[in-house]
Amino acid sequence: MPESLTFPPDFLWGAATSAYQIEGAVREDGRTPSIWDTFSHTPGKVAFDENGDTAVDHYHRYRDDVAMMAGLNLRAYRFSVSWSRVQPTGRGPAVQRGLDFYRRLVDELLEHGIEPALTLYHWDLPQELEDAGGWPERETAYRFAEYAALLGEALGDRVERWMTVNEPWCAAFLGYSSGVHAPGRTDPAASLRAAHHLNLAHGLATSALRGVLPARAAIALSLNSQVIRALTDDPADADAQRRVDNLANGVFHGPVLQGAYPASLFTDTAGLTDWSFVKDGDLAACHQPVEALGLNYYTPVLVSAKSSTPAGPIATNHGVSEHSPWPGADDVTFHQPPGECTEMGWAIDPSGLYDLITRYSRMRPDLQLYVTENGAAYDDKLETDGQVNDPERIAYLHGHLRAVHRAIADGADVRGYYLWSLMDNFEWAHGYSKRFGAVYVDYPTQTRTPKASALWYAERARTGELPAEPVWEGSTVR
Ligand code: PNW
């Protein structure tokens, strides 16, 4: 019989969103198109050809949204800044009206006692920079550092939690190799250059922020470090696991957290590139001191060597494309992990979150760890009584929060958890068909309704207690 668990008193109970997924107002106050505007307006790229033009209209409704967060007892809110709102061409001086929106949002959060956690890049590169070559071009990393400094100067007096790049794996490999995300390119060699320049962008931005932020500011990187499991203990499967782990994790945490790329990554990808785009001094530039590491986790990845592959369901976790998001791993098979799935088809496995946290806790015991995203999509319905009952999401959150608690009990320095997502929103290539929110959004009216899971989570935030069982019988937050 499980018992109820208590989290540390200063544990940060939060929720997360990103700019393109919620803001809308894509043509207001000087904002120019990002690669996601272009991509979503290209027929056939997003389910039902949906786009973020309106999204959940957060740009106009941020005040109500912040009041709603306060009503849900949230202590922290992780959001991202739309680069092309602040720097429409990706270079040059900042646009005041763009900065003002984020200043108003941050002030509203602070007035409600909610800590803002700002992500500089959640995939919405200004289109003009993509036209100049995008992340495969080194110049983009320099542009990013300049943008980081502008934001740091503008908001450093009121934002203490800074995150550079969110999930560089998605940006590099879904964007430039499999092409299921913007800008939709399918060039594996270019995707490896993109990965390096995202690492460099993180490092250069971190240095630039140090120059403008007060000493109390904490800088972090958010990785979608993935948990890669081998199908069997056959050495060929273990090798497949190592190769995919390099491409999912090592290619980012190597330079950024350890100061070097894994040597075997170079040999695994030798047929695609000679890595000559890594210049002298780059590894030192990537390997900047940071205070915190953000980990995003949804589901594990299960692999085997093609030669040893038995028949079985093949995973579609990373979207469906004839091009792989794993450059140089064509001889690996990706399997559907066992167990129940969320609406994304992602297998539910909280032990993966425990494994991820303990891995990074051992790698860098000096860093504060945050779960910067975790959550689930379900086919939620607004009932006639005005409630949204989502017991599956409560069970998902319960299981994963138990895993976080176990990791803390075993010595990991996990300081907080940001539920993905605060509210239903534009789920990238899936459009609005997948609901990740704790709060339900009725898109035609933009009405927000906290789901049962939001009320359940609000109780965790209020009490710091995780009950023994994932049940919720209340209907309001006390
Ligand atoms: C993350 N994959 O995206 C993002 O950070 C969020 O913006 C997004 O809404 C959330 O997770 C849910 O999808 C991912 O294919 C998209 O492995 C795709 C993958 C992983 C994360």
Protein described:
- With 478 residues, this protein is α/β, with parallel strands linked by helices.
- The chain has one domain: Glycosidases (TIM Barrel, Alpha-Beta Barrel).
- It contains 15 helices and 15 strands.
- The strands form 4 sheets. Strands 2-3-4-5-6-8-11-12 form an 8-stranded parallel β-barrel, surrounded by 6 helices. It has a 3-stranded mixed sheet with strand order 7-9-10, covered by helices on one side. Strands 1-15 form a two-stranded antiparallel ribbon.
- Helix 14 (391-409) links the parallel strand 11 (368-373) and strand 12.
- Helix 7 (139-155) packs parallel to helix 9 (188-212) and helix 13 (350-363) packs parallel to helix 14.
- The longest helix has 25 residues, at 188-212.
- The radius of gyration is 21 Å and the shape is globular.
- The two termini are 27 Å apart.
- The mean pLDDT is 96.
- The chain binds 4-nitrophenyl beta-D-glucopyranoside.
- 4-nitrophenyl beta-D-glucopyranoside is lined by residues 18, 21, 166-167, 170, 224, 296, 317-319, 373, 420, 427, 436.
Shape: globular
**Helix-strand topology string:** EEHHHEHHEHHEHHEEHHHEEEHEHEEEHE
CATH architecture: Alpha-Beta Barrel
The helix content is 25-40%
Structural features:
EC 3.2.1.21; TIM Barrel; eight-stranded parallel β-barrel; glycosidase; binds 4-nitrophenyl beta-D-glucopyranoside; 15 strands; alpha/beta; three-stranded mixed β-sheet; beta-glucosidase activity; globular; carbohydrate metabolism; polysaccharide degradation
